[in-house]
Amino acid sequence: MSTLVASQAPETRSASGFRFAMLLPGALVTFLLILFALGLVLFLAFRGNDGSLLGTGFNLANFISVVSDPLYGTVTLRSLVIAGLVTLATVVTAYPVAYYLAFHAGRRRGLLLFLVTLPFWTSYLLRVFAWKIVLAYNGVLNSALIESGIWSEPTLAFLNTPAAVVVTLAHAYAPFAILPIYVALDTIPKSLLEAASDLGARPFTAFRRVVLPNSMPGVLAAALVVFVPTVGDYVTPAMVGGPSSTMIGSLIQSQFGKANDWPFGAALSVCVMLVILLVVLVARGADRRFGSRT
Questions:
Q1: Do 101 and 117 touch, CB atoms closer than 8 A?
Q2: Vertex 11, ends 7 and 16: CA angle to 5°?
Q3: What is the rounded CA–CA span in Å between residue 271 and residue 46?
Q4: Of 134, 221, 225, which is closest to residue 181 (Cα–Cα)?
Q5: Are 78 and 250 in contact (CB under 8 A)?
Q6: pTM (two decimals)
Q7: Tell me: the pLDDT tens digits for 46-103?
């Protein structure tokens, strides 16, 4: 018996060493690219701006300025509203696509999943610029409306508006919503639907009582994947939005760019991260509630 234990000990140590070696690269990348960067932002947020890279001293002046200036509260609220609308539009349009992929695609599923991920093959900036061409004054949409006789002349109502930002971001992040919802739907046992049918449930009732509750973790995951990055997006508002579409990411970028005030930009970033963290905690609580019901 002791000989068997002794022979198994080196194998156990070897397996542990292999797991450690496999985890080490990912742990280093996580530390260097995420934790170190986050720590640097937190460090800068409490520094004063003297024109240098790392600032000087330690104080709460940056956070006081962020909280006391109504501009940042207004822009943050606008960013949350736009991100919420983008998330709602993305999830609502992504769910039917994911549902079809999970239950009706059949042999075409692989091809359709490939088409869903196809936008990743092109640059994000190129996709945003394509929407700018569609929504421009002399763009595709205005030309189509004039050619069809609906309007007699082009309008500026499409481009440089919050609606243009919502549509562009919803299109850009659609694959990020489709995939997690599809995974959640695909893991639902088909026997549950068969049991619901055997018990006399109509298709809509089976969807409402079986499919939708079991897919909510995927829906919440998709909402978070879309909501978190869109709150801080600044490229899309700059290209297709106007002054009424300025988001908090644009203000943060200007602090790190033209204003050259890295400490204040870091403090503004920390405040936005705290707001997003609050939203994530609320969504996580909702996820647990739906999980307990299912």
A1: no
A2: 145
A3: 12
A4: 221
A5: no
A6: 0.84
A7: 998 887 778 888 889 999 999 998 999 999 999 999 999 999 999 999 999 999 999 8
